[in-house]
Specification:
This protein is of the alpha/beta class and about 220 residues long. About 50% of the residues lie in helices and about 15% in strands. A five-stranded parallel beta sheet has the order 2-3-1-4-5, with helices on both faces.
């Protein structure tokens, strides 16, 4: 019988990367994997990359059904979010990732793209323990410059970077995702804000967080 993804991940500690599209979450997650943080090893779970991989592969497996793939394709193409009713699918995608990567029990999971709204955040409370939120503060103008220059080096072959798609993502972030800062602050989760400019590198972001003194 397949293990329950919620039960399996309850003791995992995590860092949540929170910022608009183009702010540098994925490159920062890669640096965290390479260097760790505050003495902890890290493993990045890039939810968007996992969605795109599942849709591109277009093959059901032990955790992902044909119906799941159809739903995810619609979400990716429309730049939409998985709503609270679909959280069991999000949990299965997370478990699928953890099962394939087999991180050590003390490894911190770097959450990139999940949760992205209040419904997901509430559901995540029973799945994984978010210890710190790294907020990549980035204006719309800076987002446009960073994506246009592929500053993070992670925008190649992205089919969702058209100007209209970027504007839609920024609107969704402002309306649905940014309120998570208040949500986690109200739960005494530490918020570490990094001001991101047009040329800020992932290494610079990492140094800002690493030197913040938030040692566990």
């Amino acid at each position: 019988m397949m293990e329950n993804p919620v039960a399996t991940t309850t003791t995992r500690k995590a860092i949540l990367l929170l910022g608009p599209t183009g702010s540098g979450k994925t490159p920062l997650g890669q640096v965290l994997e390479e260097r760790g943080l505050w003495g902890h090893t890290c493993l990045q779970f890039d939810f968007g990359a996992n969605l795109r991989e599942i849709v591109a592969r277009n093959q059901p497996d032990e955790l992902i059904t044909v119906e799941d793939i159809s739903l995810l394709r619609r979400l990716v193409q429309g730049g939409l979010l998985l709503e609270g009713a679909h959280f069991p699918l999000a949990a299965r995608i997370l478990w699928r990732f953890l099962a394939r990567q087999s991180p050590g029990p003390t490894t911190w999971i770097v959450l990139n793209g999940l949760p992205r709204h209040l419904g997901q955040a509430e559901a995540m409370e029973g799945v994984i323990e978010i210890r710190t939120v790294v907020h990549l503060a980035c204006s719309a103008q800076v987002v446009a410059e960073r994506i246009g220059g592929n500053v993070g080096g992670d925008r190649d072959r992205r089919g969702d970077d058209a100007p209209e798609a970027i504007r839609r993502k920024l609107d969704i972030f402002a309306e649905r995702t940014a309120p998570l800062l208040h949500y986690y602050r109200s739960r005494q989760v530490r918020i570490e804000t990094v001001e991101v400019g047009p040329r800020t590198t992932a290494g610079e972001m990492w140094r800002t967080v690493e030197s913040s003194g938030l040692h566990e």
